[in-house]
Amino acid sequence: MKDKLRVGDYMTGKVVTVSPEDTVMDVIKLTRQTGHDGFPVTSDGKVEGYISSLDMLLCESDEQVKSVMSRNIIVAHPQMEINEVARVIFRLGVSKLPVVDDTGRLVGIITNSDVIRSQIERADPQKVWKLKKTLETVHNIEITVTRGDVNIQELVPTQSKIFADELEGRIYELKKGLAEPIIVIHKPDRWMLADGHHRVVAAKRLGIEKIDAYILEIPKDIKLGMEKTARESGLRTVDDIVVMDFEKHPLIEITERLMMRDRKSLEEIERKSAESE
């Protein structure tokens, strides 16, 4: 069973890079296009340095990246624990680290946002393995777990509604390449969406046809409780999920309620203080 959160589970695999032969102006244009404040510098797939907005200050626009970039950079490995990376990022005061494999080739990038996400996301590897163990115990079967892209239109949802405010957050994450994988159960005849309904709807709204997923492969057709619930709720495709535009996520409602209570308490204290004067 996996019990450690690894860089490979949370890093962004699609990384925008620049070449040592590019110019500072090339990087500035790329910064405007992507909104990123820095890029790994690669040659033949291997990391040679990193160039940030600070590196380009006071530089001529026609200077080449190789004469401006930082060469002494810290990198991460896909098998590093998230907690180790968190310590490095915190101590160095950086916002991201390139991720390289055993040969030094760039395979991703891990950011402070990814580290935070690893602590709060719902579809982390530990949840996948807990679900796997539960299904194996209940149904007396052996399940394998793989990682790959799944077709959104083939997914049968198991949650009837999602919240508009959280959906907006998932759309933002997808645009920034920060969204975590969903969890899918694959039976011989169907794909059940176990976790990640907000992310799937967000992807569909953005015109994305496939999405990264942890896939629990069930070798035979067994009857799942979530499958029965989906059928009784009339859920057949992602399009059947209702977006609650006028209902906030419970956690946000609780937060706002607590804030309102604290504000009223403060106002009461100020009122009593004024009366005593």
Write the layout of secondary structure elements.
Layout (H helix, E strand, L loop, with lengths): L6 H4 L13 H11 L3 E6 L2 E7 L29 H11 L3 E5 L5 E6 H9 L4 H15 L4 E8 L3 E3 L3 E3 H13 L5 E6 L2 E6 L1 H9 L4 E8 L7 H8 L9 E3 L5 H27 L1
Parallel strand pairs: 6-9, 7-11, 8-10
Antiparallel strand pairs: 1-2, 3-4, 5-10, 8-9
Helix pairs in contact: 6-7
Organism: Methanocella arvoryzae (strain DSM 22066 / NBRC 105507 / MRE50)
Pfam families: CBS (PF00571), ParB_N (PF02195)
Keywords: Amino-acid biosynthesis, CBS domain, Methionine biosynthesis, Oxidoreductase
Short description:
This protein is of the alpha/beta class. It is 39% helix and 22% strand.
Account of the 3D structure:
This is Inosine-5\'-monophosphate dehydrogenase. It is an enzyme of class 1 (oxidoreductase). Its EC number is 1.1.1.205. The chain has 277 residues and is of the alpha/beta class. The chain folds into 2 domains: 7-119, CBS-domain (Roll); 122-244, Conserved hypothetical protein from pyrococcus furiosus pfu- 392566-001, ParB domain, CATH 3.90.1530.10. Helices cover 39% and strands 22% of the residues. The chain is built from 9 helices and 11 strands. It has a 5-stranded mixed β-sheet, sandwiched between helices. A two-stranded antiparallel sheet has the order 1-2. The chain has a two-stranded antiparallel sheet with strand order 3-4. Strand 8 (182-187) and strand 9 (190-195) form a beta hairpin. Helix 6 packs across helix 7. It is globular, with a radius of gyration of 23 Å. The mean pLDDT is 85.
